[in-house]
Fold each of these.
Amino acid sequence: MNISFKFAQKKLLRGHNPSPIGAVVALSASEGAFGSWWSAKHRSLCHIITLSTTSPFVLKIFIGFFVSIPTQLPTSCVFYMSANIPASIPYLDITYKYCDFYAKFLHLNLPCLFTESHTCTWPARLNWSENGSISIDRVLKPFSGSELCVANCRDIEFGAHPTLTMTSEEYLAYWKTAGCDGTEQLLYLKDWHYFKGKDFRNYYSQPVYFSSDWLNEFYEFRTDCDDDFRFVYIGPGGTWTPLHTDVYCSYSWSANIVGRKRWWVFPPGEENKLIVSHGGQLPSDISQCDFADPETQDSDLPRCYVFDQQPGEMFFVPSGWYHQVLNLTDCISINNNWLNACNVTLVWRHLQAQLREVKKSCSDVESTPGWDDACQECLKAWEGWNYREFFVLLKYILISRWLRLTVQEVRQRLPTVAGIPGGGKVPLHVLDEQVESLLSDIASSEPLLVKWLTGDTLDSRLQNFVDVETTTSVSSIWQHDLVEATRTIRSMVVNEDLKRLRLHSRGPAAWLWKVVLGGQV
C-alpha cells in the first residue's frame, strides 16, 4: 500500500519574504505518482509525494497547521561577509576596475550603484524609451496574445501582492487607461522572463562586473527546463515590491531603463529590529518606518539606506540584504539574479536552513519511509530547488573550471543517453548521472584532480586576481570558482542530510566521494 503525502502551502512570489502561511498536510491511503500544479490565481503550489509503508491498515490523517518558513539566511551566516558597512552607497563610474569591484563589493558582500554611463549604449534603453517615457507598445509587441502574470500592488496577502493573469493586450489597455478609468488596481508586471528563448544581448550587454554568473550558466547547461534568472519589471508610478531578500540568497542587480525608483536597503541583521517592533513579524511595507543612519551604532532603530535610483543607473544588491523598492514614476527595469564563488557559501547555508524549516514543519510524520526524499520535494516546492540540483550545479562548475571548458564544450563531453536523441531534453536525474560519469572519467585519468579534491588547504587566489592585469582576470576568477566549488562540495558530501539521500554514494563518481570522505560513505 502506498501513502500519499500531500503538502499544500501558499507559495509566495519568488524571492519574497513570507509571513506565517497556512499549510495542510494530509496522509491518505492511495496509489498514484508524484505530481505538482500551480494555481496562478491564488499563487498556491501543491505537491503530492508518494511514500511507501508496510502498515496493514488504511491510514488517513488530516493535519492543519500554521508554519513560518523564512527565506532569509540566519544573520550570523551573512555578517562575516558584510563587514565595514559604508556610511552611504558608493557610486561607481565606468572607469571602475572589475578586479576592485570583485574584491571590495562581491567578496565583501556590500552594495553599490553604477552610473548611467554603464548602460547608455544598451539597445533596450534606445528602443524601449520615447522622449523619456516607456514605449509600452514596443516592449509588449513581441508578446502579442501571451498571458502575463501581474501583481496588484493595492493588496497584500501573506507578505506579497496577489497576482492575476492578463493577456499582453489587456495589460496594454490597462497601461494606457491607468488613472483614467477609476480602476482600483495598481498592476505591476514583474519577474517577467522577457528574454527566455531570446538572445538577451539584443537588449543589453552583460556588465563585466556581473559576468561570473554560475546560476544562469547552469540553467543554460541544463536541457530539462527552459528557465533563466533574467527578468523585466514594468509598472506605473506607485507600484512597489514588498520587503524581501532575493531568491536562493543570491546576488541581484537592477538596471533602470526608464524611470526612477526609491530603495530602502538594510544591512544584514537590521531586519531583526523590524521584527521586534512589529510584534514578531517582518513587515511587508516599511516605507513609513523610522530608521537610523547606516553609520549609527547601538541604535534601537534599524539602520537603512534610502536613496533614489535614476534612469540608466544600476544597483548591486548583495546576498541576504533586505530591501523594498518603490517606482516613483512609470518604470521599466532589467533585473538579474546570480551566484558565484563569492557567495556560494551563503547560498549553501541558506539551502540548509530552508531544509531544516521544512523538516520542522512536517516533523509529525518523520518516521514515514521515504521522508527525506519527500522533504526534498517540499524544499523544491518552497525554495525552487533542492540538494540534488545544487549538487549538480557544483559538479558542473568543478568540471568546467578544471578543464577550462564552456557550457557547450562540457555538454559535448557528456556520455550519450540511450533513447534520448542529440539535442533532446535530458531529465535532471539523468544529467546528474552523465555529469558524475564524466567526473569519474576525469578523476580516473587525472590524479591531480583527486589530489585537489582531497588537499588539506585551498588557496582562493583572490589576492592574485586583484594584483593581475584585467586581461588575465578571467583565469583568476575561474581559479577562485574552482576553489569555492571544491570547498562547498566538501561541505556537501559530509552533510548528514545528503548522506541519507545517498546522492554521493549511488552514482558513477561514488568512489571519488568516498575518497574525499577519507573512505567513509
Amino acid sequence: MRAIRHGFGAIASVAVLITGTAVATEMRAAPAPSDGLPATAPATGEPEDFGASCRTVVEGSHVTAHCSNPYPRTDRVRLHVECDRWWDVDSDSAPVEVDPADYAQVTGRCWKEVRSAWITHEPADPAPVTGPLPGPLPGPLPVRSS
C-alpha cells in the first residue's frame, strides 16, 4: 500500500514538471507584437517633453513644493495654498522658473491649518519650431554707392 502512494506521488510530480516545461517553452516562443500597432501614444497638439515633477509636503501650517525638471524646456511653477480657516488668507506664490535638469523649492504658509496645496505649470519659453520656416528668405540687400 505504501509503495502505491509513493509511486503515485512520483508520477504526479513528473506530470507537473512536464506540464510546466511545456508551458514555459510555449511562453518563450510567443510571437512578438504586431508591427501595425503603434508602441507609443498618438501625438497630440501639446508636446509631452514639458512639466517639472513636483511633490508637496505639508508640515503644520507650512507647505513646501520640491520640483525637478527632467525635460529640455524651462517650466514655470507656482504654489497655491488654500487655508482651512475662513479668515486665513489663501496664497499664490510668485512664478519660479525651473530650468532643464534643475531643482527648485517653493514655500507657502497659512496662519493655522492648510486645507489644500497644489502646483500649476506653464512653459517659460515658447515651443520649438518643428516645421519649415513660414516664408521665403529675403534676397540680398541692395548696395549703396557713395
